[in-house]
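hey so i finally got around to running the thing on that chain from the lab meeting. sorry it took forever, my laptop kept dying and i had to restart like 3 times. anyway pasting the input first so we r on the same page abt which one it is
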Amino acid sequence: MAARLSRPPRPRRFDVRIALAGLIGGVALAAVGLGTRPKGGVGVLFDGPWPLLVPLVVMCGAEVLRRTAPAVALPVATLALMADQFTQGSLVTIVMFTDVMYAAVLYGTPGAARRIPRITGLLSVLATIVPFALWRVPEALLIGVATGIVAFGPASTGLIVRNHREAADTARLRAEQTALLAEMDRAQAVTAERARVARELHDMVANHLSAIAIHSSAALSLDNPDTSRDALGVIRENSVLGLAEMRRLIGILRDDSGDGADREPSAAPTLDGLDALVGAARANGLDATLAAGHREQLPAPVEMAAYRIVQESLTNALKHAGPGPVAVTLEMRGASLAITVTSPYGDRDGPRAPGSGAGLIGMRERATLLHGTFEAGPEDAPKGKIWAVRACLPVPEGESE
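ok and heres what got predicted. didnt touch it at all, straight out
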């Protein structure tokens, strides 16, 4: 099946109206006998008002195609203008030619927009120099002036307008791209903030909720008033601490412009709080010890990440570790802070708290954000199999105190 030929674009209504207005105006001027040259003048081969209507009609046809087919309209308009020179001439034909010339530069191809002003400018110069050199009269210069007004002037104007439009289009495209990049940055910032809040919520509350779940299960499974009372004490303590952590998280999320009468300051945890953290783990039933060989102040992001990694590791040990010692070790290795938390690997005798794996993901994210390393998994040890969490957080040179 033969491919269908694409239809040429339909002329714009505005261009058709201009052509009709030009035709009516040209006919009106011809009817009153008004032309650009006198009857019987030099070069006039067809006297009378009506022969000039032929170039006028052709020029109107070119005017209709000025935007949809400028590459066709300009040659046709040029031929019509040349034919008009052998008649008494019509002012409307000349005016419409200037519009076709302007449109050919404005709506034509980029190559045509560059070539036409150069060609018309050269023709204007030649039309000025050659007649003056031949006739040696000042009036000969008017030929170049007329050529410049009819051809070079409209072409130059079209080029200027085209350049302004292209600059405006470029600026609009740049603005759209900037807006798109800004939206992408905003979406990434929102995603990163949500991930940060999720890590903070998990790390701050999971430890206390895990202790509550384990001790409440123990209290329900054992018919011993003393054990139940101890479990309830631990549950209450962790509930209060969890509520305080939640209020601090709310303090982070609240707008600074709000009143926030019930808001507490959201102080970032530091390595100085590790003793209290390990002590709370012992109170919850873990045989936890802390060996912190580095107590000097580090950058706040490093201290916070280290604190949260230890906190989540103790929470996982509370939920999943078997009976035995849990060791927390921190030491400087070159320009990095090394964190190691080991716990017994095996089945737990008492009640277990459910886990989703989000803690390991959060710890890995914290290490990655600081360009550090993180690994967690079972390992063989002299006293049996252990679960080891190892993280290495780089400390920027000159930022440790």
